[in-house]
Structure prediction request, 124 residues.
Amino acid sequence: MASQKVKKAQESRAKRMSRGRRSNPSKDDLERMVEEATEDAYDESEQVTGFYTMFENDLELPFNTVVLGAEVTVERLDLTDDDHIVVVCRRDQERQRLPILDLPLPEPPPKGWEWIEAYRHWAR
Prediction:
């Protein structure tokens, strides 16, 4: 049954991507994505790792966005010792870590941005 849900979520994501514009995932899509990311996880730490894995596989890096009025380049992801997913942003020679939950998405968003929305949905 889980594989049917995963397949449905993948088809829904593919449909949105083919439209060439940002279309927010439905609540059902988000819940299927959460299930896909956390399917084999036994606790919250493993669930966060499941999302980190989805980001690593599907989120296209680097990409540019605006944080507090300044354009930054999101270069990479990191998983902290206390099980938080952060992005490493660069502006000129400065680097800053920012929780991915707080990351503003650009228009158009990078490929795989739906996973950030699914993670936000899960974190609520």
Notes: The helical segments are 2-18, 27-38, 44-58, 114-123. The CA atoms of residues 1 and 8 lie 11 Å apart.
